[in-house]
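During the reporting period the student researcher (J.K.) took over the structure-prediction task from the postdoctoral fellow and processed the backlog of single-chain submissions. One of the processed entries is reproduced below for the supervisory committee.
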Amino acid sequence: MNSTTEQMCEMDTEKDNDYIWKVIHKIKENKHFTLPEESDEALFNRLKETYNYLIKLDFFKKDLIESFLTGEAVTPGYKDNPVIKNWIEEENETPESQYEELLIIADKKEKGLL
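J.K. obtained the following structure tokens:
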């Protein structure tokens, strides 16, 4: 890899890290969420791993990424939950669309519509 490519990768990583920290601060400011007792660094590392997983699955909608990161923040292991994982990784389906559908179903269920 040449230095320009390396610099671009470093810039992308820095941009991603800044984004994850912004999401963490947004979650912490929301009094509706209760986070587990852990250091900010541990939370960051968990969300960074989750973020990378989502990007690998071609998630690009910011609201869905933040929703998934919030799920992982308040419920460690959210991304590894077999029900969620199987749903979004269903063969021949788009993971991001699957997750969006899952959120719609959960919302309807919460409202008593299902």
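The committee noted the following: The chain has five helices and no strands.
J.K. will present the remaining backlog at the next meeting.
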